[in-house]
Centractin
Amino acid sequence: MADDGATIIIDAGSDTYKTGFVGQSSPHKIFPTILGNEKYHTLTGEEPNTYIGEEAQRKRGILSIRNPVQNGIITNFDDMETIWQHAFTNELEVVPEEHSVLLTEVSLNPKEKRERAAMIMFETFNIPSFYLAIQAVLSLYAIGLRSGTVLNSGHGITHIVPVYEGLSISHGFQRIQVTGYDLDTYLATLLLERGHSLNATADHEILQSTKEAVCFVSQDYEKTIGNPEEWKDFETTHELPDGKIIVVQSERFRIPEALFKPKLLGLEDPGIHEAIAKSISQCDIELRKLLMSNIVLSGGSTLFPGIVERLHKELDILMPPSNCYFILCFNADFSFKTNKLKSALHAKAKILAPEERKYLPWIGGSVLASLSTFQDMCISKAEYEEVGAFLVNRKFI
């Protein structure tokens, strides 16, 4: 239990809901951001039971499962309200009207979504104050920074967000369609070629745990994929929950390679290294050295062994350190034209990959809410009642 009145931090992702109290170093409760109703129920006219989180996951086979968060954005507020209520009452065991709430959001979250979230928090849960924070900014706060470039890649999103002095630079925002879910689906496809039939939705946890256990980022993918006779060196086994043993080889490095080569999934998007370079190149020239010096990895899809080294290698090719800036001009196919601009130093890329990066936005929220000035930064219940929900879009930029 938290101290009386402790601020509650909520980071509701497409895959997992992270929540807890200010001052904690990690989320107090983590559960799947899903709910579901029974597919089959008696003909008594009663409403089918609703199950949430872990219970919904366990009963998935008999439920119609819904996820109210898609690509990091709330798409069903009725379902989201149900999950919020569950988290307050059953997970944290609190009365929400006694606690301020810090809610995280993705960059460029639609204005109407922000206002609706505030409205529910104040009008349904009657909280005393509310703060809405961008996940990329919080990821920096978690490691003591206010400026940098954040690569946030999780189950439902892959975003690159440049941040300067706690403010996201919207014109530098980049989105890639390759997500953790897409990697799970790709793994299911490759395993099917080996005779293992797994469904990306129903067997989500199995695919995710397999991916996390065996996959790594190759430092020279073209060389490795071009020498099938060497794939045997990467062969390993993995035990599934039912005791079945599967053998994997090239799948180990082919899965995460899709982050660098989305074309493996049939997508025309740039790779994460290209999107980082493009994001930084679209920011003011005076900021680029700083943004290159603090590239922060956040989210579960950045946990692959070898990803830091590969990003260093690719970024050094795209944006080589020199005595001048390189302006990267992106063609329609995301190829590059490089033009020199006189003066100033172009910093070598420095990539920060904290061990706790899977929960970095939540941790940053805990850090922010610990500040003595935090309550002054929030919207109070009185302010909300006087001005209305649109205050969210004026106060939280």
